[in-house]
Design goal:
Elements: H1 6-32, H2 42-60, H3 64-90, H4 92-98, E1 103-107, E2 110-111, H5 113-119, H6 123-132, E3 141-146, E4 152-156
Antiparallel strand pairs: 1-2, 1-3, 3-4
Length: about 170
């Protein structure tokens, strides 16, 4: 592709094509916005992994047609992500198909054992999150939520507005 020496060509090709692929991803992110690589849904996670795979493939391409196909794949991923975001905004069915529902792991100082078991979250992990949130007493905990992103939110204090957890699945009911 670049020079006649196979070893030198592989080194140059990997460095140059990898850098070009990375710059191309940055351009696509600038066009579509930071939401493209956010950690919001399962769909977004798969998008990020697939994009990384394509960048790696671009760095290893041995022909320009392969490299162009990889670039087209990147554009396709971003277009699909934009369409999915539009669908999620306009359709509750699409939203629920693409996104997990948040789950209540703890409520009013008590662990939700059924939720812990079904989500495969260890009690020790919840306790670690409580420490991170500076919770000093279980009685301070209004709710602990396993979010759609896999993050854990700790809500503590005197009162909790029920609207904050209105869309959260409560498996203890």
């Amino acid at each position: 592709m670049f020079v006649d020496n196979a070893t030198l060509d592989a080194l140059i090709r990997g460095a140059v094509l990898g850098a070009i692929a990375l710059v191309f991803v940055v351009v696509l992110v600038r066009i579509t916005g930071l939401r493209s690589l956010s950690k919001m849904t399962n769909f977004d996670f798969v998008m990020t992994v697939a994009l990384g795979s394509l960048v790696a493939g671009g760095a290893q391409a041995t022909e320009w047609t392969t490299y162009l196909q990889i670039g087209a794949g990147m554009v396709g991923l971003f277009l699909t992500q934009v369409l999915a975001a539009l669908l999620r905004r306009s359709s509750e069915t699409a939203e629920s198909a693409m996104q997990n529902q948040p789950v209540l792991l703890m409520r009013n100082g008590e662990f939700c054992e059924t939720a812990l078991e079904s989500t495969r979250v260890a009690k020790s992990d919840v306790i670690a999150k409580l420490r991170e949130a500076n919770v000093l007493d279980y009685a301070q905990v209004r709710a602990v939520v396993l979010e759609t992103t896999g993050d854990v939110s700790v809500l503590h204090g005197e009162d909790l507005d029920e609207q904050i957890i209105a869309n959260v699945a409560n498996m203890e009911r």
